[in-house]
Each structure stands twice: as C-alpha cells, then as structure tokens.
Design brief:
Elements: E1 3-7, E2 10-13, E3 18-25, E4 32-39, E5 46-51, E6 57-59, E7 67-72, E8 77-82, E9 91-99, E10 105-107, E11 111-116
Parallel strand pairs: 2-11
Antiparallel strand pairs: 1-3, 3-8, 4-5, 4-9, 5-6, 7-8, 9-10, 9-11
Length: about 120
C-alpha cells in the first residue's frame, strides 16, 4: 500500500520559517516526481514546487526565492523549506507523487500551514 505522510505544519508569524516533510512508502521513490501543492479556503489547489527523481525542480512564481524543495532518496522523503512566510502562504499543504514512467499518482492527507500577519 502506498502512503504519503506529511509533517511539519503549524502556526507562524509573517517572516517565519517552517520545514515540511513527506515520508513515502510503497513506491520506488527514485522513479517518482515528488511535489508540494497547497489549497487555501475557497481556492483551487495549486502547485507550489516539485522535484524529479534526478533533482530537477520547479517552483510557483509566488514562492520562488523563498521556498526550497529537496529530496533524500535513501530516506524516501521529500522536504519543503519555507522561509519568509507570508499570510498568503496559508493553506493546507499536500504531498504528491507521480510515477515518471506512467500515470500513477498519489496524495497525502495534508498538513495545515497558518501564517499570521
């Protein structure tokens, strides 16, 4: 069974930092592109950042320069370091996994990030 388990969310003030983690099991981790998505109340879920098995990265314009995605294939874990957090970063952050050689896709249950002004 595939599991993606997020951790590290919480409440911070503007300008603060959080580090999210997503531990994956049940997949060949190195063959999956891992991503972080977020969803604010009343808004569509959006891609924040993702990273390929070989380390290539993409970022949403709104977070580029503030957030860093990384992965540790030995630990089957993907991270999102979030610096200089702003209230507009508030939302539920979801871990996503996509098999790079097919259509399989998996989602975690999400972790809440709240940034106060």
């Amino acid at each position: 069974q595939v599991q993606l388990v997020e951790s590290g969310g919480g409440l911070v003030q503007s300008g603060g930092s959080l580090r999210l983690s997503c531990a994956a099991s049940g997949i060949t981790f190195s063959l999956h592109r891992m991503g972080w998505y977020r969803q604010a109340p009343g808004k569509q879920r959006e891609l924040v950042a993702d990273i390929g098995g070989g380390g290539s990265t993409n970022y949403a314009d709104s977070v580029r320069g503030r957030f860093t995605i990384s992965r540790d294939n030995a630990k089957s874990t993907v991270y999102l370091q979030m610096n200089n957090l702003q209230p507009e970063d508030t939302g539920v952050y979801y871990c996503n996994s996509r098999f790079q050689l097919g259509r399989a896709e998996y989602w975690g249950k999400g972790t809440q990030v709240t940034v106060s002004a």
